[in-house]
TrEMBL record:
Family: Belongs to the succinate dehydrogenase/fumarate reductase iron-sulfur protein family.
Binding note for cofactor: Binds 1 [4Fe-4S] cluster. Binds 1 [3Fe-4S] cluster.
GO molecular function annotations of the record: 2 iron, 2 sulfur cluster binding; 3 iron, 4 sulfur cluster binding; 4 iron, 4 sulfur cluster binding; electron transfer activity; metal ion binding; succinate dehydrogenase (quinone) activity
Full protein name: Fumarate reductase iron-sulfur subunit
Keyword Metal-binding: yes
GO biological process: respiratory electron transport chain; tricarboxylic acid cycle
Source organism, top-level taxon: Bacteria
Keyword list, A-Z: 2Fe-2S, 3Fe-4S, 4Fe-4S, Iron, Iron-sulfur, Metal-binding, Oxidoreductase
Length: 248
């Protein structure tokens, strides 16, 4: 395939960025989107030009690093896949593809297509854990029976990889789906009940502190989420937050 790539280039967060056009040829349909960018960068390096900076790690849809806005959609036109799992067969010969970083004040650009998503880490650190001492102290597994639906919902929430697609898809750049997933995976299990009140209050407070917007109730976050995290988690977090506020 022959393609025309319009790629956002920006030296740093304070510099003014712009879309630059790059023609590329010889792209196979079985290539992943990141492999296509690798081909482009190899050409740029061979020409003595600076390669395009983009974030990646596992390339298996697990780490959540490959956060790219492709033709206006987080992770591109396919569904339930990350950018590294997006194949070039989703595009046609002669297509023009616009590639940008995820847009959110809480995700400042580091360079080109790479953004700083450490705001997600700070939300997690605010309460996304259980205080169980397992260091050198082997203990039996929790013997409290867990309803299967609750266990399934908890595991489904825990599949969130923190890629930020939900934020990029939201016109308010809301992190409600991410935060709700991290709250839900603990709220549904006995191990998470002890710190439930502090958890939801602290994580929501940190989310607001980071500058994320309010939920739009349009559901774009669930549609664009590569792991299909359900909006039900946002409703659960709202209930948890209300209950914690009344207790507090």
């Amino acid at each position: 395939m022959k393609l025309t790539l319009k790629i956002w280039r920006q030296k740093n967060n304070k510099a003014k960025g712009e879309l630059k056009t790059y023609p590329i040829d010889g792209i196979e349909g079985d290539m992943s989107f990141l492999e296509m960018l690798d081909v482009l960068n190899e050409e740029l390096i061979n020409k003595g030009d600076e390669p395009v900076v983009f974030d990646h790690d596992c390339r298996e849809g697990i780490c959540g690093s490959c956060s790219l806005q492709i033709n206006g959609e987080p992770h591109g036109p396919d569904r339930l896949v990350t950018t590294c799992q997006l194949h070039m067969r989703m595009f046609k010969d002669g297509d023009t593809i616009t590639i940008e970083p995820f847009r959110a004040n809480a995700f400042p650009v580091i360079k080109d297509l790479m953004v700083d998503r450490s705001s997600f880490e700070r939300i997690q650190q605010a309460g996304g854990y259980v205080s169980v001492n397992t260091s050198g102290n082997t203990i039996d597994a929790n013997a409290i029976p867990v309803n299967k639906q609750d266990a399934d919902d908890s595991f489904n929430a825990a599949t969130c990889i923190g890629c930020g697609a939900c934020v990029a898809a939201c016109k308010n750049a809301s992190a409600m789906l991410f935060t709700a997933a991290k709250v839900s995976q603990f709220a549904l299990l006995p191990q998470g009940k002890v710190e439930a009140t502090e958890r939801v209050l602290n994580m929501v407070a940190q989310m607001d502190k980071e500058g994320f917007g309010n939920c739009t109730n349009t559901g774009a976050c669930e549609i664009e989420c590569p792991k299909g995290i359900s909006l039900e988690n946002i409703a659960r977090m709202n209930r948890e937050y209300l209950s914690a506020s009344l207790k507090g």
